[in-house]
């Protein structure tokens, strides 16, 4: 789904008050706690997180899942240990209504992605 909003607060307000809002809030909290130097923004009609180099993460609530867009997850987690058991797409991690977010592993994944990004490593698709 696309949200025609102009700020992160408006994006959150536009979300239905259901499980998708909860998942977005959890993931947003992990990103904000793990990478406090990133600034929330709207990019491609999604909630984004950026620094001086550009947008590193996007979050979006879809009809049947919440997606965390991360570039190429295999470059960030080559062993697959941090993302084991999660629904991965090309450039995204999908969280459905019944799938719990493994907060410890996602925190490690986000931290590793930010470290690689800030070191200038290619984490894109």
Report on the architecture of this protein.
- Helix content is 34%, strand content 24%.
- By secondary structure, the chain is of the alpha+beta class.
- Helix 2 crosses helix 4 (103-118).
- It is built from four helices and six strands.
- The chain has helices at residues 8-14, 19-34, 73-76, 103-118, and strands at residues 39-43, 46-51, 54-61, 66-69, 87-89, 92-95.
How would you concisely characterize the structure shown here?
The chain has about 120 residues and is an alpha+beta fold.
Q: How are strands sequenced across the largest beta sheet?
A: 1-2-3-4-6-5
The total of helices stands at: 4
Determine the strand fraction and express it as a percent band: 15-25%
Number of strands: 6
| Mean pLDDT score | 95
Biggest sheet statistics? 6 strands, antiparallel
| H-E order | HHEEEEHEEH
Low-pLDDT parts are none
Q: What radius of gyration results from the CA coordinates?
A: 13 Å
Structural class: alpha+beta
Question: What level of helicity do the residues show?
Answer: 25-40%
Assembly form of the protein:
single chain
Distance from first to last alpha carbon = 21 Å
User: Shape from CA axes?
Assistant: globular
What's the helix and strand layout?
Blueprint (H helix, E strand, L loop, with lengths): L7 H7 L4 H16 L4 E5 L2 E6 L2 E8 L4 E4 L3 H4 L10 E3 L2 E4 L7 H16 L7
Antiparallel strand pairs: 1-2, 2-3, 3-4, 4-6, 5-6
Helix pairs in contact: 2-4
